[in-house]
C-alpha cells in the first residue's frame, strides 16, 4: 500500500479494514477485537497491542447498529466531518465510516446523500465518511482541504480500557429520514412496556380474587339450627276459606 499526499495510507485502511475481528497475535486472550486504528503504522490493532503503539496516533473505532463508526470529536482532528449526519451512542456523536446498503426510493422533498441518495435530516448531505470522500474527490479531484494536520491523537480512557462490541440498543439518534431502525426499537420498547403493564394488572387482579375467595371460604355459610327447629314445630299456615 503506497501513501500519497492526496490519499494517505491510513485513510485507505480506515475505509477498507474489517474491524472487530479477533487479533491473531492475542487469539487466546479475551476482548481481543481489533477496534483501534494506528495512524502511524496504518494497522488495525486490539487493546492488548497498545504497549507497542503508546507513542503513536491512535483512532478508536466503535460499533453502532452493527456498523463501524467513529466519534465526530476524534474524526474531526484528522479530517472534515461536517455535513455528515451524526448519530448519538453512549452520549457521543458518531458518524458511519462506510455507506450502508439500502433500497433506493423515489427522491421526494428533503435532504438526500449526494453519493448514495439515502434520506437524511437537514442540513446534512452525506450519510457516511466514505460518501463524503467520494464526493470531495469527484468535485475537487483530490482531498485538498479535507484532511487536517494532526500530530497528536490518543485514545480516551474509555477506548484504552474497554473494547466496544456490537450493540443492539439505540440510546438516541438525530436521524430524520433514516428512521426505520429507530422506529423498530421504539415499537419494541412500547410493546415491552405494554406487556409489563398488562402483567401487573393481571397480577393485581389475581391477588384481589384470592383475597375475596379466602374471605368467602372463611365465612360460616351454614344456616342456624334454631331456624330449622322453629319451622319444624310451627303448624303450617293455610290460606283462609271464603
Question: Would you kindly provide a written description of the structure presented here, covering whatever features stand out?
Answer:
This protein has a domain at 9-140. Helices cover 32% and strands 13% of the residues. The chain has helices spanning 9-16, 72-75, 129-140, 157-161, 180-218, 225-233; strands spanning 36-38, 43-45, 58-60, 62-64, 67-71, 87-89, 92-96, 111-112, 119-120, 172-173. The chain has a five-stranded antiparallel sheet with strand order 4-5-7-6-10. Strands 2-1-3 form a three-stranded antiparallel sheet, covered by helices on one side. Strands 8-9 form a two-stranded antiparallel sheet. Strand 6 (87-89) and strand 7 (92-96) form a beta hairpin. The radius of gyration is 34 Å and the shape is elongated. This is B box-type domain-containing protein. It holds the Pfam family PLATZ.
List keywords for this structure.
242 residues, alpha+beta, 5-stranded antiparallel beta sheet, 3-stranded antiparallel beta sheet, 6 helices, 13% strand, B box-type domain-containing protein, PLATZ
Low-confidence stretches: 159-193
Strand content: 5-15%
Structural class determined from secondary elements:
alpha+beta
Mean pLDDT, to the nearest integer, reads: 77
Rg from Cα: 34 Å
Distance between the termini: 127 Å
Helix content range: 25-40%
Q: Main β-sheet: number of strands, strand sense, barrel status? A: 5 strands, antiparallel
What is the tally of helical segments? 6
What is the number of E strands? Answer: 10
Amino acid at each position: 500500500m503506497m501513501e500519497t499526499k492526496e490519499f494517505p495510507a491510513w485513510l485507505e485502511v480506515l475505509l477498507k479494514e474489517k474491524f472487530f475481528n479477533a487479533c491473531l497475535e492475542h487469539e487466546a486472550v479475551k476482548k481481543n477485537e481489533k477496534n483501534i486504528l494506528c495512524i502511524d503504522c496504518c494497522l488495525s490493532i486490539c487493546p492488548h497491542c497498545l504497549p507497542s503503539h503508546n507513542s503513536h496516533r491512535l483512532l478508536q473505532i466503535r460499533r453502532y447498529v452493527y456498523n463501524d463508526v467513529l466519534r465526530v470529536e476524534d474524526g474531526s482532528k484528522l479530517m472534515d466531518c461536517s455535513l455528515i449526519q451524526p448519530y448519538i451512542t453512549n452520549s457521543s456523536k458518531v458518524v458511519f465510516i462506510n455507506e450502508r446498503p439500502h433500497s433506493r426510493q423515489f427522491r421526494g422533498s428533503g435532504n438526500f446523500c449526494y453519493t448514495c441518495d439515502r434520506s437524511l435530516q437537514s442540513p446534512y448531505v452525506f450519510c457516511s465518511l466514505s460518501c463524503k470522500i467520494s464526493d470531495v474527490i469527484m468535485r475537487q479531484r483530490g482531498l485538498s482541504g479535507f484532511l487536517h494536520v494532526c500530530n497528536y491523537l490518543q485514545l480516551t480512557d474509555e477506548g484504552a480500557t474497554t473494547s466496544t462490541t456490537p450493540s443492539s440498543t439505540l440510546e438516541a439518534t438525530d436521524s430524520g429520514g433514516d428512521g426505520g431502525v429507530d422506529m423498530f426499537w421504539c415499537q419494541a420498547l412500547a410493546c415491552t412496556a405494554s406487556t409489563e403493564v398488562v402483567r401487573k394488572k393481571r397480577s393485581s387482579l389475581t391477588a384481589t380474587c384470592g383475597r375475596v375467595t379466602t374471605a368467602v371460604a372463611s365465612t360460616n355459610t351454614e344456616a342456624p339450627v334454631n331456624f330449622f327447629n322453629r319451622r319444624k314445630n310451627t303448624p303450617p299456615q293455610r290460606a283462609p276459606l271464603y
